What we know:
Elements: H1 2-9, H2 13-25, H3 40-51, H4 54-67, H5 70-95, H6 109-120, H7 125-163, H8 167-182, H9 185-214, H10 219-229, H11 245-260, H12 267-271, H13 279-287, H14 289-308, E1 317-318, E2 325-328, E3 331-334, E4 337-338, E5 349-359, E6 364-376, E7 379-384, E8 387-388, E9 394-395, E10 399-402, H15 407-417, H16 421-453, H17 458-471, H18 480-522
Antiparallel strand pairs: 1-10, 2-3, 3-8, 4-7, 5-6, 5-9, 5-10, 6-7
Helix pairs in contact: 1-5, 2-13, 3-9, 3-16, 4-11, 4-14, 4-15, 5-10, 5-11, 5-13, 5-14, 5-18, 6-7, 6-18, 7-8, 7-16, 7-17, 7-18, 8-16, 8-17, 9-14, 9-16, 13-18, 14-15, 15-16, 16-17
Amino acid sequence: MTGLIFTIWSGFSQYKIIRLAPKILRGDHSNRDDSGIINHFQALTTALSGTVGLGNISGVALAITLGGPGAIFWMWIIAIFGMSIKLIEVTLSMLYRNIDNPDNPHGGPMWVADIGFKKIFPRYSRLGKIIAVMFSVSIITSSITGGNMFQAWSVADVTYEYFGVEGWMSGLLMSVIVAAVILGGIKRIAKVTAMIVPIMVTLYILAGIYVLVVNFSDIPEMFHLIVVSAFTTSEASGAFIGGSVGTAFMFGTKRAIFSNEAGQGSSPIVHAAVKTNEPAREGIIAGIEPLIDTIVVCTFTALIILSTGIWDRNVDAQFSAPPKIINQGDTWSFSDTLHTNKSGKKGDPVIMHVIADFNKVTGQYIHKVPGKIISKDNSLEIRWNDFRSSQKPKIHSKGYYFDYVGATLTAKAFDAVNIGLGKWLITIASWFFAISTIMAWGYYGEQGLIYLLGEKSVFAYRIIYCSLIFVATLGLIETSVDLDNLSGIGLGIIVYANLPICWIFGYRAINTYKEYIKNERAQ
């Protein structure tokens, strides 16, 4: 709703954003004497490093796994409206940034709330302070969960899947790399992301084009499936247990907001460091981010996953004998199952499908029961989790599936076209994307802490932040539901803290933007 209102209020600014952003990025309006420390391109790539990352590789896979193909349609809608939200929130961050030290500016929704209330509503300056503190706490929480631990876990998962590298080893290496960069501050972060992001996005899209060319004849059907599934119930098929219209909308919306960050108030923090004295100019640059992130990169990922059929594949392994179902009061347990698929290894998560009570999430009766491959009596077996149901569950399929979560599912889609492509492309891309995202979000959380506690708190925060990369890879997260919940913790808090700021001061950004467009036409 917020995006729709700002779209109409700004006179459908999406068109102007697409037209003007390239001119600004070329440096047509740059002025060395303006306040700030980084240029427009560095701000865009740093902000994109926080958005174009595992949200595109892992997040899209999660959206399809949990919500079905229709989730992608709602990702598109959120992205289009998100362009206007980005315009507003970044313009506001430029209007109300703290430039007491022009060589070290601070900005973002916390400063908008603080400075904005003092200037426009001085009688309610205390309210502005409360909102600023709420946002600062939420940006720190979101940086730790979705911006850090979600990324680290996904990288460790795909690296373990393909190369057998223990998660803690990946976590340790990531911690060291990120620490080496973020300890240098925003200038070093901006330089690194300006180099990494364009290269990785280009390589990823080129590989995606190859896969789509191979499956070219299926592309029209995939677009049709995406649109139809957004408005109808998706029936269960293979590994996919089905989804309702509400499921597609919920997971599509959640993943889109997580991916392009429109409404989160995160990217305004880095844009506030740009060398410019035209607030709307930077807002226009930020407005292009959802287009690049979701409409282009996420759509590539979605088409790759859907066209290869990896999302609704047949069982990965047949049961040698179905597990016995044992009643334990209000829960049901399952006997261990012999693992017969040679590609599986100890510790791999698996799932089987059962028919039981009505599933309120999908609108059907099929449920996932997670399990894990264990070593037992010199062989590999599967130990299943208990399942709660008022009626005795019935095994739905003749076998079980590997629980390909996030980036691993996307990698398997590439592998379906060319064996080894996903192994190397997604693993390498995941490392680069995740590291750049963790660095960007480290800066966001850092700025929230600076607002709360001042510059002296930064060093301790950076050490703790880098340590949490390692913690996230120690096996505390096991299933796709865990992964979705982890990334959603900070997301839910930060959106509700940021949007009221946009509503209260949005008119200032709209007026500034329209005045800028008027002057642009006059030139």
